[in-house]
Amino acid sequence: MVNHKTSTLGFALLGLIWQAPRSGYDLRKFFSSTPMISFSDSPGVIYPALRRLEQSGLIQSAEGSGRRGRKMFEVTSRGRAEFRRWQTQPVMQQDLVRNLDALMLRFAFMDQFAEKGAALRFLKSFQKELAAYIPNLRKYLKSNRDHMPRSGRLALESGIQAYETHLRWTRGAVATYRQAKGES
Amino acid sequence: MVNHKTSTLGFALLGLIWQAPRSGYDLRKFFSSTPMISFSDSPGVIYPALRRLEQSGLIQSAEGSGRRGRKMFEVTSRGRAEFRRWQTQPVMQQDLVRNLDALMLRFAFMDQFAEKGAALRFLKSFQKELAAYIPNLRKYLKSNRDHMPRSGRLALESGIQAYETHLRWTRGAVATYRQAKGES
DNA sequence: TAGTCCATGTAAGATGTTACATGATTCA
DNA sequence: TGAATCATGTAACATCTTACATGGACTA
Q1: What's the CA A21/C1' D22 distance, rounded, in angstroms?
Q2: Which pLDDT belongs to residue A69?
Q3: pLDDT tens digits, B98-110
Q4: What is the structure's pLDDT at B65?
Q5: Which residues of chain B have a pLDDT value below 50?
Q6: Sheet holding B22-23, edge to edge
Q7: I want to staple B41 with a disulfide (CB 3.0 to 4.6 A). Which of A16, A100, A102, B32 is the partner?
Q8: Given B34, B108, B152, which is nearest A108 (Cβ)?
Q9: Strands B22-23 and A59-61
């Protein structure tokens, strides 16, 4: 068994297969027809990624798979453990800057696959990193705005606004979870 | 001369070198110390990318480059033409979904390198694609919200909010340009 | 029976990640 | 002189992009 380091795409596939056993074709169609369109639905991406997940022992093809010609995959217990490990890592500043999409993917599957409380911990951790990072951007803008071209300044402001929107979102999300807790 | 298809990183380098001749080291430091930190500052990324730009004839190393050991690059006329072509392409829905960062990069250099009016054309084009795309996400949310897990729904809402923030930003940016035009 | 969709794959090539390597320069 | 920083590079590896290839099933 070869051990590949799972990519963001790999975790997306793993999460979807965990939701319900799926074939490569199902996954391609899912990507092309939902907001997960940000992932490529090309066969040259999906099938090799599935083979890697299988080689790493994170998924296996189910026997007696549906229609002839289809190969259905299901998640193994190793796959579930690996997914949870990835999903519940603390949020780092680097994730914010380089991999915001992966962060949201981790959160998207939180209710289904992580233990209770993981969603709130994630949100708090995300919030903390955002609150620490946004002032850096503001500082840079303040020091440099006068000798930045207008479009450069606007682009930076757009980035700041995007992070602020995420921060606002985390507050709403935390409230949603708190409320649900109170009701239960 | 080999012709490589220039990547987003390549255009980032090209734009920065156009602003002022720079060495690989300068570029690495720029990435690591400004909001362009989203690009890798690793030498294993920067130096090969510079070689590719040079091989494609988009940059050349300047003679008598500064301190001993440094190689300063400057943009060629082919490089300028290629940058402008990339920068002034119309915005496609695919750019929105897969390459939002590249879009903002294109805009960031607009005032410096594109002809007058290009910034406004870009903003209008961006606006149009955003206005066309956001309703798709809303529709998906509306049809699926009842059988989505809470965290999945929240993640989708975060995506919608991010796009809406960009749309709001374009309106502010258009106003900025209009105002400057009126004043001039 | 012809066209479309289902379904899986391979191959070439470019790019990015990470780690390693080397030597010059500056400054305490 | 030793450490940090300047400065450029290579090499192994994994991944993604794009294009091509193949055959079965369905349906007008």
Answers
A1: 25
A2: 75
A3: 999 999 999 999 9
A4: 60
A5: none
A6: B22-23, B72-75, B59-61
A7: B32
A8: B152
A9: unpaired
